[in-house]
Amino acid sequence: LREEFLQAIMLPLIAFSAGSLIGGATFHMIPSAVERMGNVTEVYIFLDFGFLLFLAIEQFLHWHHSHTHIHRLFNSHAQHPSKPMNLQQYEGEGSCSCRQTSSFDGEPNSASKGTTSSVSIDVETPLDTQSHSPVDPNPTSTLSWLILLADGLHNLIGGMFVGASFLDSIELGLSAWVAAAAHEVPQEIGDFAILIHEGWSKKKALLLNFISALTFPVGGLIAYAASQSIDVSFLIPFAAGNFLYIGASDLIPEIKHHRGVKEDVINFFSFIAGLAILLGIRVAIDGW
């Protein structure tokens, strides 16, 4: 795909995926959980637990989803096409959905703000925050493998949620799949761009991205196998909490900043479109 096209669609895709995730949770997963488990406190405990788990992952492990760094990367390259795309100045914003020992504040020309430390995995971000030049000449850094590992784990968890939804009903499974797929598109584009920058060939990056995506059906099979011995209905409100957290905490903050009236209107209606599609699926199957 052309960089100009990716630049144009990245933020609307993020807005659409946010609407899809929130619509999937509110129009489908929460009502289905209440219908299956009853309007009991347990439903809302699992809902909150799904939300809190992903908050804890980001709060304590610094595992964060971010997509706008790719938008800024393409925008910078479009303005200066003679310069190669430099993704390293955006590494550390959580762009890789993984943990790093340092993070950059996202302002390419703001050396005074410096870095903040994080924990858990000793991976040196290849960035000198004063000169913004790479300090690690190795093009296939550990960062690339962490991207794939985190993406595979994320897909595994998503597969379990969608699998549990299909076990409840085709309608719920379809809505969960649509919401998950809408979220995966901008994430996979961003991961692919990072792997290419890290020195991987397009063929290798696509192949390993595909392999990491195979954990999604594995998650569905795990949910199915578990359903043979236990009731997996609790995964439905748990997944709803996860969807609400990613949509409201990770994605909406990336699109809400003012970028001009035209861009804001496009992003706003892209969000509404995500909600509308999930509402449309519910109305088409269950009516008002």
**Helix segment tally:** 9
Overall pLDDT metric: 76
Content-based structural category = mainly alpha
* Number of E-type strands: 2
What portion of residues is helical?
55-70%
What's the story with the biggest beta sheet?
2 strands, antiparallel
SSE sequence, one letter per element: HHHEEHHHHHH
- Output the radius of gyration: 20 Å
Alpha-carbon distance between the termini? 40 Å
Description:
With 288 residues, the protein is an all-alpha fold. 68% of the residues lie in helices and 2% in strands. It contains 9 helices and 2 strands; from the N terminus they run αααββαααααα. A two-stranded antiparallel sheet has the order 1-2. Helix 2 packs across helix 8, helix 4 packs parallel to helix 6 (202-213) and helix 5 runs antiparallel to helix 6. The model is unreliable at 77-139 (pLDDT under 50).
Keyword list:
single chain; 288 residues; mainly alpha; 9 helices; 2% strand; globular
Short description:
By secondary structure, this protein is mainly alpha-helical. The chain has helices spanning 3-37, 41-61, 68-79, 142-168, 170-197, 202-213, 215-227, 235-255, 261-286; strands at 102-104, 115-117.
